[in-house]
């Protein structure tokens, strides 16, 4: 193996970035600010234009963004989209990437499909790491994401991840970070739904939701929703956190599928994903995840 294929990938190395949406765009900005040469691709023209405005080099295809890159990052909706870009079509990443290059899938993908993709990449002499993130759009903008890393490539990709995150954890073999991410998001979604339900019951009883929030935040019910979402997005009913309900529902589904594949009883995850799927069917694919609060209000209005 050439030395270039074992050394850490540091600025001004060339990085391909596929997926320039709510998360991919600010992550691209951080990579550019750190001094990487970033070539980006997104299926949406608007996303490509925003990336060019941020100083990145827009490309007409994923293959063009990946050519000559030492690492290619995918920040796509799910593992199915990653597999399509990586394996399907006329110029998939598996053929476009240079030998020894690493695909870093930072999307919240399904762990078992990540393992399968890793086997295909290994056969082609390419490496794969799963490195999903937590923290949302604000932390992506600030470069302070939490990043979970599966596989054995952290030493090589650390400078790339350092440009985007401030807490980096190794979770084990390939796929383990995607498993961790789905389980985290299941716990987070359960907290969101429980919190919105409790606030609406409390409000119906005459409690002030703002006072409830303050009490929860210094009590045992405290969670990410009480601390970071109630006053910003839910109580003012702006519902503009930047994390879609469709993505949250996908993540809980991954956690449920994992429990089922491992034959672990998970009745509460099944209940949570059922609720999220009903809310998504009612509110539509564009809804923000904080709109589960609005869904509960719609249910309450119908019951009257
Ligand atoms: P998004 O929908 O805003 O962006 C996804 C982008 O991928 C879009 O711009 C879309 O045009 C592009 N895309 C889809 N298919 C494509 C293809 N085949 N080729 C090229 N581009 C394609 O989603 P997001 O919020 O940026 O989330 C991306 C990933 O990060 C998801 O897996 C999500 O679960 C995860 N995530 C999101 C957040 C958040 O707060 N938004 C936080 C942590 C993790």
UniProtKB/TrEMBL annotation:
Coiled coil: none annotated. Pfam families: NAD_binding_11 (PF14833), NAD_binding_2 (PF03446). The keyword NAD applies. Residues 14-171 form the 6-phosphogluconate dehydrogenase NADP-binding domain. Residues 175-295 form the 3-hydroxyisobutyrate dehydrogenase-like NAD-binding domain. The keyword Oxidoreductase applies. InterPro entries: 6-PGluconate_DH-like_C_sf, 6PGD_dom2, 6PGDH_NADP-bd, HIBADH-like_NADP-bd, HIBADH-related, NAD(P)-bd_dom_sf. Keywords: NAD, Oxidoreductase. This is 2-(Hydroxymethyl)glutarate dehydrogenase. It comes from Methylobacterium isbiliense. The lineage of its organism: Bacteria, Pseudomonadati, Pseudomonadota, Alphaproteobacteria, Hyphomicrobiales.
